[in-house]
Amino acid sequence: MLSVSKISLTQFKNYSHRSFRFTSRIVGITGRNGSGKTNLLDAIYYLCFTKSYFSTAENQNVQYTMNGFRLEASLQRHQKEEKIVCTVKDGKKDVALNDESYEKFSRHIGQFPAVMIAPDDAEIILGGSEDRRKWLDALLAQLIPGYLDHLIAYHKILQQRNSLLKAMITMTHSPDPLLDVFDEQLVQHGVPVFEARKQFLETFIGKVQDRYDYLAGKHETVAFRYQSQLLEQPFAALLAANRLRDKQMQRTTQGIHRDDLLFLLDEHPMKTSASQGQRKSFLFALKLAQYEAIRAHKHFPPILLLDDVFEKLDQERVSRLITLVQGPDYGQVFITDTHGDRLRAAFADNPEVIQLISMQEE
Ligand SMILES: Nc1ncnc2c1ncn2[C@@H]1O[C@H](COP(=O)(O)OP(=O)(O)OP(=O)(O)O)[C@@H](O)[C@H]1O
Questions:
Q1: Which of 8, 40, 296, 310 is the most exposed place for a label (fewest CB within 10 A)?
Q2: Which structural domain, as residue segments, surrounds residue 197?
């Protein structure tokens, strides 16, 4: 079992300094709009992933006018107490587990698995292919050792290759020998990422379908289609066949950085055909299936962070979700809501299972 028992936030977003103790398996966080509920979930996410779920720019996590923040948490993992500290000061980040700083943050990912379900997740369906890759990569990084390292290396080489393609016009010598080297490295790091994505998605859809049917209370067929240029030809051949085109376009046109996922509901694209309610159910199903995949892989349940679920799902779906997360397959769950009464009522059958924390209390 993995759980957070204590967290302290200093100069993190709207928090000057505040500590919280978590004493139950289910923690309800209540408070007005803008009181910092989501920011608290994000702090927990940050400690697990060494980055915010919401903000890509680190300075957005630092309290306005300050020059750094500190997050510290005590966690229980397999009956052992662990301490994680993340600090950012003057743009420099440090992450330490039990007082030992990481040289590579990627070593931390997957050790303290967590899944966030938040309003912005709609982008996974409605946004561009980058949003879907980001979701899939965050998931696979927790499951497959080395996945993140391959992905980071791939993107670094891709950037160098693209810079070379742009600089080519001003060059007096042929860029081909250097492109050969980059291509070899792209294949070396791109193929394992492609294989991991392909293999994972083949079986994952079954889990999503189960969760969708459970939440919706009826059966509608959901499906994915993994779209990758690497399904058509081996990567090395693709790069070779498109070199001239890449030179003309001044960028790398083929590769796993172009992968996408097509989500289907009853064989129609979810993005354009599904209703808002169907999309919401699908997103929850996707995230819950993600949770289960991680649990099955790690042999212990991840931390589940549920932001504003009551605003997103109808009462019937919320009550199915609440029943599910109280079950034996789930570990520590954090749920935010603006209404304490609504949260209390949702757990009326089992009130002792939930600890309620109000943002208004200091
Ligand atoms: N870098 C920052 N420095 C200071 N305050 C910040 C920073 N970033 C965000 N905030 C503040 O945090 C608050 C938002 O907090 P959060 O999103 O956690 O609220 P919430 O309780 O989840 O609200 P809602 O119920 O509307 O979802 C806003 O008042 C915002 O101004």
A1: 296
A2: 123-298
CA-closest residue to ligand 1 atom 19? 34
Q: Considering the domain boundaries, does residue 118 fall inside one?
A: no
CA of 35, closest atom in ligand 1: 21
Dist CA 199 CA 320 (whole Å) = 30
Dihedral sign computed on CA atoms, order 169, 172, 177, 182: negative
CATH number at residue 103: 3.40.50.300
Q: How far is the CA of 40 from the centre of ligand 1 (A)?
A: 10
Quote the ligand 1 centre to 33 CA distance (angstroms).
8
pLDDT at 43: 98
Is the domain of 80 the same as that of 47?
Answer: yes
Mean pLDDT by 10 residues, the chain (362 residues): 96 97 96 95 97 93 96 96 97 97 93 90 93 94 92 98 91 87 98 97 94 93 96 97 95 98 95 90 94 94 94 87 92 94 89 91 55
User: Which pLDDT score, from 0 to 100, does residue 361 have?
Assistant: 60
Q: Give distance in angstroms: CA of 271 to centre of ligand 1.
A: 29
Q: Two tokens at 159?
A: 């950037």
Q: How crowded is residue 192: how many other Cβ atoms within 10 Å of its Cβ?
A: 18
CA nearest ligand 1 atom 27, residue = 33
105 vs 117: CA distance, rounded Å = 23
- Domain boundary residue, one of 298, 316, 344: 298
Nearest CA to ligand 1 atom 8: 13
pTM: 0.91
Cα(259) to ligand 1 centroid in Å equals: 34
The single-letter code of the amino acid at 14 is N
